[in-house]
Amino acid sequence: MSVLIKRIYDLKENDKGYRVLVDRIWPRGVSKEDANLDEWLKDIAPSTELRKWFDHRKERFEEFSIKYQKEIQKHPEIIRNLIEKAKSGKLILLYGAKDEKHNQAVVLKNIIEEEQ
Fold first, then answer.
1. Looking at residue 13, what is its pLDDT?
2. For position 52, what pLDDT does the model report?
3. If DSSP codes are grouped into helix, strand and coil, which group holds residue 37?
4. Gap between the Cα atoms of 59 and 47, Å rounded
5. Number of domains forming the structure of the chain
6. What is the separation, in whole angstroms, between the first and last Cα of the chain?
7. How far is residue 74's CA from residue 13's CA, in Å, rounded to a whole number?
8. Taking Cα atoms as reference points, which of 77, 31, 2 lies closest to residue 21?
9. What is the pLDDT of residues 62-81, one digit of tens each?
10. Which helix (H) or strand (E) holds 80?
11. Domain that holds residue 37
């Protein structure tokens, strides 16, 4: 199983794999053509309420992770599909946040890897 997380603003060199945007809001300054996505999963992204509460504050990340995991449980079919994509090749979870260690893609990657 291969799951990578990558900031959508980073260069797409050697990005061969199934590319999925896991943000609810489209990233500023990125055209849909440049994003080169296979799928945009708005429904798996944190709710607007949770996203606004988290506000990308590192000190809230642990609690954010717990709350986000509860939200994700409402979409088991999406998680199953992502697991299947990861099993059949490389899955690349894309996000727009500046912080590479404290974002929803990190949480989602852990969930996918644990569910294998």
1. 65
2. 96
3. coil
4. 19
5. 1
6. 8
7. 34
8. 31
9. 999 999 999 999 999 999 99
10. helix 76-88
11. 2-115
Write down the residue that tokens 């989602």 correspond to.
108
Copy the structure tokens of residue 28: 């500023």
The answer, yes or no, to whether residue 16 has pLDDT greater than 70, is: yes
Predicted pLDDT at 14: 66
Percent of the chain with pLDDT over 90: 83
With cut-offs at 50, 70 and 90, classify the pLDDT of residue 49: very high
Checking if the pLDDT of 84 tops 80, the result is yes
Tell me if 1 sits within 8 A of 87, measured CB to CB. Answer: yes
pTM of the model: 0.92
Bridge-based pairing of strands 90-95 and 2-7 is: parallel
Q: Which amino acid is at 2?
A: S
Query: Counting Cβ atoms within 10 Å, is residue 9 exposed (0-12), middle (13-18) or buried (19+)?
Result: middle
Query: Which residues, in sequence order, are bridge partners of residue 7?
Result: 95
Which of 93, 91, 94, 97 is closest to 18 using CA atoms? 91
Decide the pairing of beta strands 90-95 and 39-40.
unpaired
The residue to which tokens 């797409």 are assigned: 12
